[in-house]
TrEMBL record:
Protein's name according to its UniProt entry: Helix-turn-helix domain-containing protein
Taxonomic lineage from the root: Bacteria, Bacillati, Actinomycetota, Actinomycetes, Pseudonocardiales
Provenance organism: Amycolatopsis heterodermiae
Span of domain HTH arsR-type: 21-100
Lineage: superkingdom: Bacteria
Gene3D superfamilies referenced in this protein's UniProt entry, alphabetically: Winged helix-like DNA-binding domain superfamily/Winged helix DNA-binding domain
Coiled-coil ranges from the UniProt annotation: none
């Protein structure tokens, strides 16, 4: 059921997103946290209000909008809740390997200081 609230949602197709916009979306640690939480659950089972985020509601809404605009998530309304889906297959087709790097545990990522 489409509501006035859900008609305002814009979902960019990942294939139409620039690399710059994709990188900007995943650069923020709060947005990476959202993506990791979504990757850990089945599609359409995580409502916006259930994410463990250290930000205010308005800021949370902004982060979800950035992720939608970058083609990373899709949202739909289910009664009073807004449910989320990570658009992994579509995003992987547009940016192979990028999401896999983003979803890795930050503790597992090592940066070489030697430049190699």
């Amino acid at each position: 059921m489409t509501t006035a609230r859900s008609r305002g949602l814009t979902h960019a197709p990942p294939a139409e997103v620039s690399l710059q916009d994709a990188l900007a979306a995943v650069a923020d640690p709060v947005r990476r946290s959202i993506l990791r939480e979504l990757a850990a659950v089945p599609d359409w089972t995580k409502a916006c209000g259930t994410f463990n985020l250290p930000v205010a509601k308005a800021t949370r809404s902004h982060h979800f909008a950035v992720l939608r605009a970058a083609g990373l998530i899709e949202q739909r309304d289910d009664g009073p809740r807004r449910l989320n889906r990570l658009r992994r297959p579509e995003f992987d087709a547009a940016f192979p390997g990028l999401l896999a790097l983003v979803l890795r545990d930050p503790a597992d990522i090592r940066v070489s200081r030697s430049g190699r």
